[in-house]
Amino acid sequence: MPRFMLNHKVLKPVGYAERSCLLVQYELPLLKHCFILCHEAAAGQPAAADLMAFFLAEAERLARESVGDAQAFMLIHSGRSIRKRPNWHLHVFVVQHRWQKAWVYGVLGAKNAALVVYYAARKVLGRPVPEAASRQDA
Predict the structure, then answer these.
(1) For residue 128, what is the DSSP state?
(2) Cα gap 30→19, rounded to integer Å
(3) pTM
(4) 7/60 Cα distance (integer angstroms)
């Protein structure tokens, strides 16, 4: 499957190491400021409220640093039952216009629709998909 994450970088800014977190920075076509805030699964289960508060503060910081507006972002978080990876993570998309918001949802919808077709084809052809790979995050 093609990868739409361009200029992918994994970072550990100040404040991340002590929380066992990582910051993934990337671009989508037509959207320059995309991030995934990740808690490393090996570190054990975090206090959900504390981690979500940290992630929200970071989303505001990233938006402010990217475009000068701390509220110019949208978030996507998937619960444990439907995400691909076991670790806590939050997708942050810095958007300044409604068309960018629609673009994010369109890209995610197309990606997930393609995965449905891919997994269905594997099933029809008798090539099972491992359980962990069949669950998808945002």
Answers:
(1) P
(2) 32
(3) 0.82
(4) 22
